[in-house]
Amino acid sequence: MEKRFFPLSAITKRINELLEPAISKQFWVKAEISTGRERGGAFYCDLVETDDGGKIVAKIACTIWQRELSTIKELFKARNMDLVLTNGTVVGFLCSLQFSPQYGLSLRVIDADPSIALGEMELKKREIIERLQKEGLFETNKERFVPILPIRLGLITSSGSAAYNDFIQTLTASGYGFKIYLADAMVQGDQTEKSVLRALDALTGLDVDLVLILRGGGSKTDLYFLDNEAISRKIAGYPKPVWTGIGHEIDTSILDYIANRSFKTPTAAAEELVARFVQMRRQLDEATNTLKTVWAYRLKIDQDYLARAVTGIQQGPRKLLDVTASCLREQAQELRARVQRRLSTEQIGIGRRREKLRSLPLTLTKNHMERLAAKRQELSSGVTHCLTRTGETLSGLKQRFEKERFLRRLAVERERNEKNRQQLKARFFSVFKMKYMLLTNIKGRLKQERVLQRIALARTSLNDKMATLKAIDPQTVLKRGFALVYSQQGTLVRSIADVAEKQLIQTRLADGSLISEVTAKEINHE
């Protein structure tokens, strides 16, 4: 039998004829994107289906032309979502068959179902959360100690982004000298995982008190790039406490569950840091006021004690002289009273005897005249003797309390009191000097001028550092006339070898971006 050979074009033409009835039909397909790439405004990929073991059981080429791709992106944007076409993403496409003799059979995408993409992302997110929670990783980083006043901060975000500017402006406005270590990272897009992990590794060796991962607001699908298991596990085992400020008021990222603490916005995270310093300053002010009150109270007590001591020293000799004079007056009065009583007693006795003599019979008068005379003489002698003894006693008392002797005793007492006063005065001034030096030392430490001077120095240092950061800011470099060139994959082009002819490139300038096509490459031989 003779072999019959058909031209390849006849075969492809026949295939096209057989497929013609099905090409006009549209149908929904649910599959996973593989080897996706965007070129010339269109998106090319393979749609695959895998079994439970991950083996591919079906595969077909797929194309989203520029017009349909733009329409689908607008549809997702209206649902507050971004169209994610990364490898491994499950999608739901409305397709039709297309056949080309050169490229074969493929699917042409006409529309897409946002609910499929969102549902798959939520399912994947729940699976990651369940695995991490089962392993007990939700509490690991929460156990990391956060200093009361974290001053050295590791910052992971995109440099120059709204999240970066809001965070830095809030800290700067507070006036406190925060020290920021920026690890520039992409927080959305296919490079998010690699970029954030690299930033965490870079901050590990630095002496930071706290690490913050920040990004601004965006669509729900923006969170998809941070709902990353590798980043979550890295944070769970990270040696430093990690705070997050993802920038979503309603949705919660997986990183929020893993982090030491999470905030709805970067500004809220900055405000919490500032609030810690404000609270500590308020406590220090209250403690300072309490210390001043206590010292003022103690000083008043010591001053009152000193005043009483001085008054006592001044009034002591005067009181002693008054007491001594009072005692002398009392003794003199008592002596006069005793003499007066004795004289009264003797006069009464004489009167009684005189009456007795008058009552005796006249016959006895003569017999007793001599006896009476003798008695009178005896009485006179006794009275004279008594008066003499009383005079001697009075003279002795007078000599005892005469002025010179009193003054000598007073001088001795005054000298003793003066010595005691000098000792008390020296002791008081020693205590007063010690407390005055202590108060002066405390006052010197609390001087407002020294505190303000230190704050001014810190503010000057911070301004210098901010000026340095602003000078090396990529946005500043762009304003000088330089530009950044990115490939279709979003990577930075550093050499002409990184791009090919006919390939689209993005040129980033200070005020926007340009999309252009490479028509030729010229090697610089200098």
TrEMBL record:
Cleavable signal peptide: none
Taxonomic placement: Bacteria, Pseudomonadati, Thermodesulfobacteriota, Desulfuromonadia, Geobacterales
Source organism of the structure: Trichlorobacter lovleyi (strain ATCC BAA-1151 / DSM 17278 / SZ) (Geobacter lovleyi)
InterPro entries, alphabetized: Exonuc_VII_L, Exonuc_VII_lsu_C, OB-fold_nuc-bd_dom
Quaternary state and interactors: Heterooligomer composed of large and small subunits.
Keywords: Cytoplasm, Exonuclease, Hydrolase, Nuclease
Record bears the keyword Nuclease: yes
All residue ranges annotated as the Exonuclease VII large subunit C-terminal domain in the record: 137-404
The protein's name in its UniProt record: Exodeoxyribonuclease 7 large subunit
Main location per the UniProt record: cytoplasm
